[in-house]
Design goal:
By secondary structure, the protein is an alpha+beta fold. 40% of the residues lie in helices and 18% in strands. The protein has a 6-stranded antiparallel sheet with strand order 2-9-4-7-10-11, with helices on one face.
């Protein structure tokens, strides 16, 4: 099981930002130094931003900050061609020059990029407006007009009040250092939370003893390893309760809970941070 993967983007020195359209969502849990604005044109599944998990569907619009790990997982029945599509814009903090965003007229955009370290999901009218503008932007033949429109989009996002912050802790990945261990473990949890997850295996992934790993994980994340796994499982169970006709017992066992009474107690304690459904 690999850690959150570092992604080196293709060079885009002839443009101020990189705009791409995707027809498949195969990227692993990954990160890169660039900011990223992602619009889901078609598709549904689970979205992971830092330590936050939520469902996504068409119209989902998220701005992510530098080195914030993320990925979109599709539902199994969407593997056929043309079932999913997204528009992605990636750009560095100095995409218009080192001091450009320091201009007073751009202070709101600078604040937006600071908030994006948590991952920002835009909602309602803002999401609808930006969806339409991004689709038009992707088709624009003139690079100068694309740049002006992109700045307008950033300004609209900067002044919008229709948003929620996703990863309250602002998880930040690095290519080296202690944080890399947490990225490795989160990637393991994301790929396996519906199955059996072993503490010994998680500890082995980061070359630590189980006891040392538990202390390190709690100190770094302010949660125990088991609490994190439970949060992911409860969040996914909530999604299924809202969006499926499955029985509570089926949802319980499908999400890795071996005991129905324990499953009920977890809901009553409200230990997991609730997912937000727009």
């Amino acid at each position: 099981m690999a850690r959150a993967a570092f992604e080196a983007l293709d060079p885009y020195k002839d443009n101020s930002f990189l705009l791409r359209e995707f027809r498949e969502f195969t990227a692993p849990y990954h990160f890169h130094p660039e900011h990223e604005l992602t619009l889901i044109v078609k598709g549904k599944g689970n979205r992971y931003v830092g330590n936050h998990m939520d469902i996504y569907s068409s119209g989902d619009l998220v701005l992510m900050g530098s080195n914030l790990p993320h990925c979109w997982k599709i539902e199994n029945n969407q593997e056929e061609e043309n079932e999913v599509a997204s528009i992605v814009i990636q750009f560095s903090n100095d995409f218009l020059g080192t001091d450009f965003l320091a201009r007073p007229e751009l202070s709101q955009i600078l604040d937006l990029l600071e908030r994006s370290k948590h991952g920002i999901q835009f909602l309602n009218h803002t999401a609808e407006e930006i969806t339409n503008r991004l689709i038009l932007l992707a088709k624009a033949p003139n690079s100068f007009k694309r740049l002006i429109e992109f700045l307008e989009i950033l300004h609209t996002l900067a002044i919008s009040k229709e948003y929620i912050l996703l990863d309250k802790h602002g998880t930040k990945a690095h290519q080296s250092g202690k944080t890399e261990r947490i990225n490795t473990v989160l990637a393991y949890i994301i790929d396996n939370y519906k199955n059996e997850i072993l503490l010994d295996h998680a500890a082995a992934l980061v070359n630590m003893t189980p006891n040392a790993f538990c202390k390190y994980y709690k100190k770094t994340t302010k949660k125990t390893f088991i609490e994190t796994v439970t949060d992911y499982r409860i969040n996914y169970a909530i999604q299924q309760l809202i969006n499926s006709d499955k029985s509570i017992s089926d949802i319980c066992f499908e999400n890795g809970f071996g005991d129905l009474s324990h499953f009920y107690k977890l809901f009553k304690k409200d230990e997991a941070e609730p997912i937000k459904i727009p």
